[in-house]
Amino acid sequence: MPDRDAAIKAVCEAGDLALAAWREGAAPATGVWEKSKGHPVSETDLAVDALLKQRLGALAPNIGWLSEETVDHPDRLSMSRQWLVDPIDGTRDYIRGRSGWCVSVALVEGSEAVFAAMYAPVTNQLWVAHKGEGTTCNSKRLFASSREEFVGARVPTDALPKADRDLEMVHKPNSIAMRMTMVACDRADLVATLRWGHEWDIAAAHLIAEEAGATVTNATGQPIRYNKREPLDFGLICCAPGIHDAAVERLRDRAVALLA
Q1: Tell me, what DSSP letter sits at residue 98?
Q2: Spatial CA neighbour of 182 closest among 236, 107, 239
Q3: Facing residues of 198 across strands?
Q4: What pLDDT digit, counting tens, does each position of 10-29 carry?
Q5: Least packed by Cβ within 10 Å: which of 9, 34, 136, 211?
């Protein structure tokens, strides 16, 4: 295991670098453009990515690299360990001057995340998890939602479809990883998506939520594995264990229709 304290320090340094260009309620001090339609990126994303690659790469040899802002290299598939990195998860909130963004880093061994650190500098939250050792936020142990009744479950969202209006809306950060931490700290009961997403979006938050006691699967209820040749998964369910079966059932027909 690479030096955990050094990895956490690198994540915090990366977050502070991003914060230096962030401006509340306004566009950042650095340039912003679309790398593809509907997918914004800023100069800060790239600067944070470069800093993390340098800092984390110096901690141990022979660890692969998969990041949203770096061209994927197939060499990672031959390595037993990989860094999975989202330099700024929640870029839309970042470029709008909102607080719902973070730096997200996971270390994967085989197909599972074994270490994770996420830092949201605007809200001053640092989440850390190591497999088998639980999750902390700012050094305080987290315990996930224990809800067992699906109706009334708290969901971070801007709107609920008609079929889901028996659920309760709560504040939604743009960062999917930060939404997952809301389940980990019992401020939400369910986070669910029905779209293809990349491994770097959720790897760190996956471990953080699971180590706090949540259940995390894809949208059809199957385990999520990392370091795949195509680093994609269909959808996400992150929730209290007691409502996972109900969440899968609620999403089943929609998931089948989309996959068809």
Answers
A1: -
A2: 239
A3: 232
A4: 999 999 999 999 999 998 98
A5: 34
Q: Give 23's DSSP letter.
A: B
Asked if residues 119 and 15 have their Cβ atoms less than 8 Å apart, the reply is yes
Q: What are phi and psi of 82, to 5 degrees?
A: -145, 145
Asked whether 99 and 122 are in contact (CB, 8 A), the reply is: yes
CB 244 within 8 A of CB 215: yes
Q: In what order do the strands lie in the sheet with 215-217?
A: 190-198, 232-239, 215-217
Residue 195 near residue 38 (C-beta atoms within 8 A):
no
Q: Cβ-count burial of 136 within 10 angstroms (0-12 exposed, 13-18 middle, 19+ buried)?
A: middle
- Altogether, the residues listed in the chain come to a count of 260
Smallest CA-to-CA distance from 104 within 213, 201, 209, 7 is with 201
What pTM value is reported for the model? 0.96
Q: Which helix (H) or strand (E) holds 84?
A: strand 81-89
Q: Which amino acid is at 34?
A: E
Alpha carbon 24 to its chain centroid, in Å, reads 22
Query: Pairing between strand 154-156 and 168-170?
Result: parallel
* 78-101 per-position pLDDT tens digit: 898 999 999 999 999 999 999 999
